[in-house]
Automatic annotation (TrEMBL):
Pfam families for the chain: Glyco_trans_1_4
Any coiled-coil regions, as ranges: none
Annotated source species: Azorhizobium oxalatiphilum
Superkingdom of this protein's organism: Bacteria
Tagged with keyword rRNA-binding: no
MF (Gene Ontology): transferase activity
Keywords linked to the UniProt accession: Transferase
Protein name: Glycosyl transferase
Keyword Glycoprotein recorded: no
PANTHER family tied to this protein: GLYCOSYLTRANSFERASE (PTHR12526)
Amino acid sequence: MTADLVVFGEDWGSHPSSTQHLVGRLARDRRVLWVNSIGLRRPKLNAQDLRRIATKLRAMAGRGRAAAPAPAARRDAHADGPGPARVLAPFAIPWPGSTLAEAANRLLIGRQVRAAMAETGISRPILWASLPSAVSVVGALGERALVYYCGDDFGALTGVDHGPVLEMEARLAAKADLIVVVSEALAARFPGRNVLLLPHGVDGALFSTPVPRPLDLPPGPVAGFYGSISDWLDIPMLAAAARAMPDWSFVFIGPVRTDISTLETIPNVHFLGPRPHDVLPAYAQHWDVSLIPFLDNPQIRACNPLKLREYLASGTPIAATRFPALVPYEAHVACIDPGGDLAMAIREAASDPRAAERRASVSTEDWDARAAVLSAALAKL
């Protein structure tokens, strides 16, 4: 018998994470109750947090409705599966490190989740936690097993209250029947535990099927990046490359979450803003070189970025700084050490015609295959 899932993840319908990719497929043959993020840091009285609080309040006001994925998440994470039977935006207290807040959340969230489980017909589920804050409800839902899906190094992740979150993670990992990790670096953090290494997958059909060139992509040679424009990108290295290659356009797609003033003054640099996930193939296929311009830090050393396999599936040449998850694919990428000469790597990548080999390198790594491995591991619990 296939066990149902109660999943504590980020907000469903946001830009699809690996959890959404996998759960969207696991939901084909099991019921899934998805519980939106509880939060991994104390809120601050700034514009960004106030907007997030307002979004959360709107979601809470409409909680209990069936899942309706946003367009940004619809194509890849959910097109091949029904998605969750229900999405719950719980009323919770986002205060990591507070014993009182955790006790209150155990009561508040537990009551809301149990009610949603009853209405959805879910009993004795596998509890899936992608966020350490879910530790507050472990043992309160009648779950048959606990899975911790560890996709990030929460001790290095930006925007997290590191100390309290790591303490919650340690308690969660100690209780977990299975820990799923996306990289060797994350696996090493849980010695002696039941650990499954499950690297990220890719929707090869989505990224390799030819689509028209976007109208807002500048003409001429383009080096492009999509994803969160955050403090793990090497901004000085990017600025140096853009200045050294004035005949190229440098295009960035995604939300800006770091200081980009150095790049904004360079005339051949363009920030297009966020785009839905299902239109990203059009950009990746039609710019001339895809960029992964990471710094070297603990977060990057533990990461396994989704864009790496998506870029490869598109067939477009790639210029990247070296990081551990890149090692199996270095033969298909123009690589430099962190902080190196990105302009040189871009020129090297642009002259590499091996599009078919790049696509072939990830042809067996689709999300369906990853979900099948995970489903077999869940069946053993």
